[in-house]
Amino acid sequence: MTRTIKSFFKPKEGAEPADGPKKRSAAEADGEAGEGGDNGGGAGPAAATAAGGSEGAGGSGAPSKRAKSVGDTDGGEEDESSAAGAAATAEEDTSAMTPQQRETYELLELERTTMAPDWFKAFKSEMSKPYFLAIKRFLAKEKAAGPVFPPDEDIYSFTRCALSKIKVVILGQDPYHGAGQAHGMCFSVRRGVRVPPSLVNIYKELESDLGRDVFKAPGHGCLEAWAAQGVLMLNATLTVASGKPNSHANSGWQTFTDAVIAHINRARGSVVFMLWGGFAQKKGKAVDKKKHLVLTATHPSPLGANNGGWFGCKHFSKANAFLRERGVGEVDWAVVRRD
After folding, report:
1. How far is CA 242 from the centre of its chain?
2. CA 322 to chain centre
């Protein structure tokens, strides 16, 4: 166990991190949401509430399991297998840690055990920073006061999209704040949950853009299958209090998701960033347009889309045309229909 502790805190450059237990199955690694209350062209809280929860939160509980990035080749498999021994032991030996190290280790238990290994490895140092540990303390207090969405095991479901395989980034703002909705991927809801208005408009644009012979709206709102296609569906804020849209917007999550975007911008090439609405466009303003394709439109919520600027944007065909041109495989947007 001492080896596991040393590797977690990595006293020397190049030491391997010890990841947490268990793999999240594809069926359980659902996502989140991320449309409610867009600033500057998106749906506000009132529109979100009318949609059956803030278009951006919620989620029903599922067994806590580790997310696994689909198609990961960025060290995820090695980390996962190296964590197998630790997974077999319910309690880690923390006796060799300083009090500060022990607190950090304990605060990051959820990240170790539910975040995909490639993501945990890439962002372990970021998550050890004071601001992120403050997020974890904040969440503990929030959960003591009432429900928080999505449930713990789904907060990092977006990491099912392997870092090394990202082709498209869709930015949302805030998880759906109604029970049973959010599951860790922006704009997506669990199967059996009514498709939110913003996602209805996304489906309409997909049908118009690609043609109904290629894409026909499914009868559900679960976009999890896109993650396997290399689509990262990331909310700027990863949690929300029940019935309170944007309640965790100032908790520190946006600093973390800024770091995620900066990492993708720096480490990846030829990624399509879909920035819908003023909030997303502001958050993605630092993306290098010489390396990546940045597509902007109004927010697909009824409030934004019905005023023009969403329908006819053709982002999905434009994304595939760019990926083809760069020699990257296209996204099969219709996979959600067959999934």
Report:
1. 19
2. 23
Q: Are strands 272-276 and 240-241 parallel, antiparallel or unpaired?
A: unpaired
Buried residues in 267-304 as b, exposed as e (16+ CB within 10 A): ebeebbbbbbbbbbbebbeebeeeebbbbbbbbbbbbb
Q: Which of 325, 318, 278, 324 has the alpha carbon at shortest distance from 297?
A: 278
Give Cβ neighbours of residue 170 (< 8 Å, ≥ 6 apart): 186, 187, 231, 232, 233, 234, 274, 276
Structure tokens at 189: 């809801």
Q: How far is CA 195 from CA 66, 189, 190, in A?
A: 27, 7, 9
> Going by DSSP bridges, is the β-strand pair 293-297/231-235 parallel, antiparallel, or unpaired?
unpaired
What would the two tokens of residue 130 be?
Answer: 């004071």
**C-alpha atoms less than 13 angstroms from C-alpha of 209 in its C-beta half-sphere:** 21
Pair of tokens at residue 231: 């689509």
pLDDT tens by residue, 151-206: 999 999 999 999 999 999 999 999 999 999 999 999 999 999 999 999 999 999 99
Confirm whether 79 is a catalytic residue.
Answer: no
99: CB partners within 8 A, 6+ apart: none
Least confident of 65-74, 131-140, 228-237: 65-74
Q: Which of 174, 209, 332, 339 is catalytic?
A: 174
C-alpha neighbours within 13 Å on the C-beta side of residue 61: 4
How confident is the model over 97-147, as pLDDT tens digits? 899 999 999 999 999 999 999 999 999 999 999 999 999 999 999 999 999
- Give CA–CA dist 150/160, Å, rounded: 16
Higher pLDDT, 275 or 49: 275
